[in-house]
Amino acid sequence: MEPSASSSLEQDVARLIVQTLKLKVDPAAVQPEASLFGEGLGLDSIDALELSLAISQTYGYQLKSSDPEIKAIFSSLRALAKAIEKNRTK
Predict the structure, then answer these.
(1) I need a labelling partner for 27 at 20 to 30 A (CA). Which of 39, 40, 51, 67 fits?
(2) Contact criterion met (CB below 8 Å) for 20 and 50
């Protein structure tokens, strides 16, 4: 896939994160490689649940906490966008 398509999905996912979690940050300011938890955006497990639901509703991709890759998927905006790109149904 061409880089522009991937980066536009990253922008869409950044907007989804900011809107879903009502973060006071510009979606364009979310760094693709920055951590979504802790030092990065500072998300917690409740945020991850809300975000999983929004991703499921928006992209048809069911994120499961039992997935051994779940920490890697939620590690950064870029990782999350790549997982959505690979697994989305809509």
Answers:
(1) 67
(2) yes
25-69 per-position pLDDT tens digit: 999 999 999 999 988 899 999 999 999 999 999 999 999 989 999
Extract long-range pairs of 1-9: CB within 8 Å, 24+ residues apart: 1/85, 6/81, 6/82, 6/85, 7/32, 9/81, 9/84, 9/85
Rounded to a whole number of angstroms, the CA Rg of the chain reads: 12
Q: Within a 10 A sphere around the Cβ of 37, how many other Cβ atoms?
A: 16
Helix and strand numbers (H, E) in the chain are 4, 0
> Is residue 88 a contact partner of residue 60, using CB atoms and an 8 Å limit?
yes
* Residue 16 phi, psi dihedral angles, 5° rounding: -60, -45
Q: How far is the C-alpha of 15 from the C-alpha of 77, rounded, in Å?
A: 11
